[in-house]
Specification:
With 104 residues, this protein is mainly β. It has a domain at 36-96. 10% of the residues lie in helices and 39% in strands. Strands 5-8-9-6 form a four-stranded mixed β-sheet, with no helix packed on it. A hairpin with a 3-residue loop joins strand 3 and strand 4. It starts with a strand and ends in an 8-residue tail after the last helix.
């Protein structure tokens, strides 16, 4: 796989908390917090996810491992694709909270 290219993570990124995923601006301001109980599942979808016509694309790293977050609530953002800075830590967090669904 190609090396990921950082595009806009200085502007917008995801951060992990013990009980939530935070969406932050400028690595400082949290503008949305998605609590664990509001997350239905997390699935790794590769760097080019298909079938995202009805979801939010929050990718900030090009050619990076991408994860589909499906929420229990919401209308426009019930599905969103993110590319965390540290995909291994994100995956470990999802597994620890029993949110990860393998794609095999």
């Amino acid at each position: 796989m190609n090396k990921p290219i950082n595009l806009f993570s200085w502007l917008f990124d995801v951060a992990l908390d013990p009980q939530a995923i935070r969406f932050v601006l400028f690595e400082l301001w949290t503008f949305r917090s998605l609590k664990i109980e509001d997350i239905k599942s997390v699935t790794e979808v590769g760097w080019k996810p298909d079938g995202m016509q009805n979801g939010a694309n929050a990718k900030t790293h090009f050619l990076a491992r991408s994860f589909l977050i499906e929420t229990r609530l919401g209308w426009l953002d019930r599905k969103m694709v993110v590319t965390p800075k540290d995909p291994e830590a994100f995956l470990a967090w999802a597994k620890l909270n029993k949110l990860y669904i393998p794609t095999n």
